[in-house]
Write a structure and sequence with these properties.
The chain is an all-alpha fold and 178 residues long. It has 10 helices and 2 strands. Strands 1-2 form a two-stranded antiparallel sheet.
């Protein structure tokens, strides 16, 4: 409770009805227990500052529809990285589109690979497209000359590579091995 009020003091000014509405929405849409809600709120207290109808519900519905998630999958994704709920829909669309484009091919998008990648490593949805994801993919494609198919397999087997720093991690390791 201390962490929540320290990091998000405005929560103290909310009515019990307003807070209950937000918690009820989270519990209902993801089959969360009281303990699950406590975990999410302690990781990301700002969740309680978002509007249930304007922020939380549309974001949850967008994630469910765009990634074809069950309540169980959505629950796991957001318990791991509840700050995903704080991103705007346009930001989330851009991130998810990046992965669908990465796993697209002449036969269409491999949506199951996108789901597997994001459910296995939810923190990928926290990375910026232009500042993190795209530079890493471009570096591995350009410098390492990985083909698109090789990159797709690489990321499915080692998704954390998409979170490593190019300058501080990937470049040094790649150059010492060449």
């Amino acid at each position: 409770m201390w962490k929540i009020t320290y990091n998000s003091g405005s929560i103290l000014g909310m009515t019990p009805r307003n807070l209950d509405n937000k918690v009820s929405l989270l519990k209902r849409m993801m089959n969360l227990s009281d303990g699950d809600v406590r975990v999410m709120v302690s990781k990301q207290p700002a969740i309680l500052q978002y509007s249930a109808q304007r922020n939380l519900a549309p974001t949850i519905l967008f994630l469910v529809r765009s990634l074809e998630l069950s309540k169980k999958e959505l629950r796991a994704l957001l318990l791991d990285s509840p700050s995903i709920l704080g991103y705007s829909l346009s930001n989330l669309k851009r991130k998810i589109s990046f992965f669908y484009n990465l796993y697209g091919g002449p036969d269409g998008v491999d949506s199951e690979s996108v789901r597997k990648l994001l459910l296995g490593t939810p923190k990928l949805l926290l990375a910026g497209v232009d500042t993190g994801l795209r530079p890493r993919v471009d570096f591995l494609h350009r410098e390492m000359q990985f083909s698109r198919d090789e990159l797709q397999r690489l990321f499915l087997n080692n998704p954390l590579i998409l979170l490593y720093s190019v300058e501080e991690n990937i470049k040094n390791k790649v150059r010492t091995r060449i």
